[in-house]
Design brief:
The protein is an alpha+beta fold. It is built from 4 helices and 7 strands. Strands 2-1-7-6-3 form a 5-stranded antiparallel β-sheet, with helices on both faces. Helix 1 packs antiparallel against helix 2 and helix 1 packs parallel to helix 4. It is globular and about 50 Å long.
């Protein structure tokens, strides 16, 4: 059903920003993620030209302050996605246990015409869930479908 939803989003008669908003929301819902971002890059030197981010149960854009730039650089360098635990970035602390709130991350490059045009960055606290290979495969399928509508 999620694949059909993303195909429908890609084919809807709405502007690009609305498609990105709907896509990120669907990814959050399907993967039970907390936050999701789409980061767009220029063609020449892989500088960020635009980024969009959403969080769970929020009907507005959020700041993409949850993104670990080291992970983004690693994915851009490798040219393929992965799922991992982000042990470096600690955004919050559990007030009761004074423990870091580590994030499980899926990062997938969106490739069009053999170039990385964007990257989807998905997170959830590991105290809630840890992304696995099945989550990664589903996210990869959704991203591959969505990459067909990337602005050139």
């Amino acid at each position: 059903m999620a694949i059909l939803d993303v195909i429908q989003i890609a084919n809807e008669n709405i502007n690009y920003t609305e498609k990105v908003f709907a896509f990120l929301g669907r990814v959050i819902e399907v993967l039970e993620a907390e936050k999701c971002a789409l980061i767009e890059f220029d063609d020449s030197n892989k500088k960020i030209v635009n980024s969009y981010a959403r969080s769970r149960l929020n009907l507005r854009w959020v700041e993409p302050d949850f993104i670990n730039e080291n992970i983004v650089e690693k994915i851009l360098h490798k040219g393929e996605g992965e799922f991992l635990i982000d042990w470096e970035s600690i955004s919050e602390k559990n007030l009761n246990l004074n423990m870091p709130d580590w994030q499980s991350v899926i990062a997938i490059p969106l490739i069009s015409n053999n170039q990385i045009k964007a990257l989807v960055y998905i997170t959830v606290p590991i105290k809630e869930k840890e992304f696995d290979y099945n989550n990664y495969n589903l996210a990869k399928a959704l991203c591959d479908i969505f990459s067909t509508i990337l602005e050139t």
